[in-house]
């Protein structure tokens, strides 16, 4: 096994929760790090921003012309109304990145996907024949269309053409700290709990009985970053897909009271039917604006902090979801996280950054 010393890295999707964590770790390890997004500035210090449109190959090629990354981390995606549209746009953005980097010195590309690889896309979620849990990387693809499969195919084709190695990282629900990114369950639940505290409402679990009672796992975003960088710098990570989850398992009925305690709210579990957040947060915008003003928070727009539908989709699943980490461990990646500590650490960082009171 060989290890590669820090060099030049490109993070595509640098403003997302995963992109921020990867960028932060790369900078800390001494990498020369470029962050590609639509923004002129980035939330992580030490990252050189590259503002470009991923769907405009000419713009992308011009912006990347003088960049010679050794490793590329692909954590950008776009959500459309149908899976056919998801496939079209998310295949195109990868294809454009590879076209822009044609002839460069890229030696490894790490792609982040997720458990919809095993469960199916949003519009056909959990309806196809599924693998036994915990999910293993060796399971065959489902028969239905899935933009993760299309992205993998773009990755494999580019690797064959351009001569780099690749890795795919299938994360579960992500916990972690990020600024300006709403698709983060830890922050969404923190905002929800803060609203409950402010208005003396109980902290009601919004999801399904299956999720309340069943075993599950999650992915700490720092652990995801560690695994993606490990795969890019170790021979054992080359040309392989890897699940990535914290390594512990839990039931929401066990974790929910611990989250409630962090916010001093009354935990209420599943009772007869799901109670989705998206249906109950109609007054959240006005309430959060008042909270932000009262506590001098940095963000008064709740929609920039919380993604109710995204958390509902995870907590509302009526199927068991947990992953096997054996393959990653056998390859030499031994990182892990305590899930309760992961959530508590994220809350502490959000409070320190004055994102929540």
UniProtKB/TrEMBL annotation:
One Pfam family assigned to this protein is: PRISE
Name of the protein described by the UniProt record: SDR family oxidoreductase
What PANTHER family does UniProt report for this protein, alphabetically?
Answer: 3-OXO-DELTA(4,5)-STEROID 5-BETA-REDUCTASE
Species this chain originates from = Williamsia herbipolensis
Return the InterPro entries for the record.
Answer: NAD(P)-bd_dom_sf (IPR036291), PRISE-like_Rossmann-fold (IPR055222)
* Listed Gene3D superfamilies: NAD(P)-binding Rossmann-like Domain
Q: Where is the PRISE-like Rossmann-fold domain?
A: 69-357
């Amino acid at each position: 096994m060989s290890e590669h010393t820090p060099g030049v890295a490109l993070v595509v999707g640098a403003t997302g929760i995963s992109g921020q964590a990867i960028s932060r770790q790369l900078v800390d390890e001494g990498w020369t790090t470029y962050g590609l997004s639509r923004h002129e500035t980035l939330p992580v210090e030490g990252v050189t921003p590259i503002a470009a449109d991923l769907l405009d190959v000419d713009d992308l090629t011009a912006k990347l012309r003088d960049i010679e990354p050794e490793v590329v981390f692909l954590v950008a995606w776009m959500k459309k109304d149908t899976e056919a549209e998801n496939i079209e746009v998310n295949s195109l953005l990868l294809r454009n990145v590879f076209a822009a980097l044609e002839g460069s010195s890229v030696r490894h590309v790490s792609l982040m996907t997720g458990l919809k690889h095993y469960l199916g896309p949003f519009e056909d979620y959990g309806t196809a024949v599924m693998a036994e849990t915990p999910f293993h990387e060796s399971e065959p693809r489902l028969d239905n269309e899935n933009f993760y499969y299309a992205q993998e195919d773009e990755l494999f084709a580019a690797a064959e053409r351009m001569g780099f190695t690749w890795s795919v990282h299938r994360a579960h629900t992500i916990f972690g700290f990020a600024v300006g990114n709403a698709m983060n369950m830890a922050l969404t639940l923190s905002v929800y709990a803060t609203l409950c505290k402010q208005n003396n409402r109980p902290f009601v679990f919004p999801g399904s009985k299956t999720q309340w009672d069943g075993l599950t796992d999650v992915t700490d975003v720092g652990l995801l970053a560690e695994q993606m960088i490990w795969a890019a710098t170790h021979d054992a990570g080359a040309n392989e897909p890897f699940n990535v989850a914290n390594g512990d398992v839990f039931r929401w009925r066990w974790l929910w009271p611990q989250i409630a305690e962090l916010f001093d709210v009354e935990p209420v579990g599943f009772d007869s039917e799901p109670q989705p957040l998206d249906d109950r947060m109609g007054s959240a915008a006005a309430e959060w604006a008042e909270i932000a003003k009262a506590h001098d928070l940095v963000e008064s727009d709740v929609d920039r902090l919380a993604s109710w539908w995204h958390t509902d989709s995870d907590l509302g699943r009526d199927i068991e979801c947990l992953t096997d980490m054996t393959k990653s461990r056998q390859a030499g990646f031994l990182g892990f996280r305590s899930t309760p500590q992961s959530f508590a650490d994220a809350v502490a960082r959000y409070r320190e950054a004055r994102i929540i009171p």
